[in-house]
Amino acid sequence: MDAEEQRWQQVDAWLGQLIDEDEALVAARTNERVTRPGIEVTPLAGGLLGLLARAIGARRVLEFGTLAGYSTIWLARAVGEQGRVVSLELDQRNAAEARANLERAGVSAWVDIWCGPAAQVSTRMVEGGVQPFDLAFVDADKANLPTYLENAIRLTRPGGLIVLDIVVRGGRVLDEKSDDEDVRGVQQAITAASRDPRVEGTALQTVGAKGWDGLAILRRVD
Ligand code: SAH
Ligand code: DHB
Ligand code: MG
Q1: Considering only CA atoms, which residue is closest to atom 5 of ligand 2?
Q2: Distance between CA 192 and CA 91 in Å, rounded?
Q3: 11 Cα to the center of ligand 2, angstroms
């Protein structure tokens, strides 16, 4: 980590005084037994997800990519016990770790983790006509991001929010000839969103404890 990245991390830690984390959140964030430890959202980003969900009075939340359930706990606490969170995760091992963390956080009664490839699972949800969601958080693999975006749009109510965790990958999102499938996925999803009359929104680059990253926040228009 270079000196500048270290400063981003220190500022994240200092701003983190705004964030209340209990031991269940810390345990989910520091879980080393999942397939990709350390790629969960930062505490500040978790706080943003919770705040957005509360701000729109969300009761139903759909998540793509559970890992150890860190962001899931934030969303579950925001919707409260009358709400529902459905989180889609490919890996059974991650799902098992997440279930234990959700249990510890006291939110497992209103969270479902559905194990399988999120593209197929979410397409089945669209076809099955599930009750619409108030907020979707899309944070699984980036290669399938265009499919996740399309299904998230179809599964979100008018006025609902779709948050895309996008990786900026050192600015490589600008490389039009990139053959990195994650970069391609982010490029295609942002272009698709920009042309799609069903959504309006914006995106932010972020620096912090996880380096240089980004978030797109879209609203399903009425
Ligand atoms: N939202 C989590 C982090 C998710 S990391 C948090 O902030 O706490 C991305 C997750 O997506 C990983 O757990 C990975 O196993 C999962 N994933 C990767 N490819 C997937 C796929 N095709 N379908 C569903 N989940 C997938
Ligand atoms: C990766 C994925 C993410 O969602 C993220 O926030 C950071 C990194 C990755 O696939 O490397
Ligand atoms: Mg992410």
Answers
A1: 39
A2: 28
A3: 21
